[in-house]
Amino acid sequence: MKKKLIIASIILVLAALYAFRNYDGKPGHFLSVQDTLESINNYYVEAGANEILDVIHLDSSHVYVPFISISGNYSMSFWIWDRMKWRVVAVDTNGYPYIWKLSQSDPTKQFIMWNTHPKKPISEIDFYLIRERTYHIENGVSFYTPRVQLRQSASMKESTYGTLTFPKEWQEIAEVDAYAKREDSGILSTLIGNNQISKLYVGWLPHYNGNSEDLGSFYSSSTMNRNWQLESIRMLNESELERP
Hints:
Number of helices: 3
Distance between the termini: 82 Å
Shape: globular
Number of domains: 1
Radius of gyration: 23 Å
């Protein structure tokens, strides 16, 4: 009997520890400016965070914090509510656009973020949702995927930083694409091969004030935790777009 009580006590303690480690609680108020700066620099020493520009809540447990470094880099940090505290999970000191997929299955939970240096003469950014058209014949059956090219613009005139939620039309197409990929993992992929399945992607095209500088001269560094579904967005060339 005593042995059973000891075993039961151990199980209860382990269960309590497990529940404690996995209970995040209700997200609390975000950190003070000083604590935010210290957390960023502790996470990534090279960030040199010096000035917080804003604290943008994407939802109750995800926060985007653009900042300026000591060396003048316009940078970004990404935060989550985890284990009952706010934690920084990624830092980028380049400021070019990223997508943060808060949910892989819900396109309404996908955000684009940026923080461009004011010395980069960018007046506006066009973001594009693109899917290349494909056509091929396999076993006598024709497969055609039409091209998708949707644009959403963001002005840089009032602020160096910002966020963009996937527009409604983008969300609908992303939902259809996600469903098609699930279906393609079965019979269709067997027939035509995964490499034949057209994939959606997001790109960005900057528009400049006057002469454009060498954007590469502003390149810096980043540290990303890939577990948090952050993806850099490829810069497009005009030649990659189709115009009426």
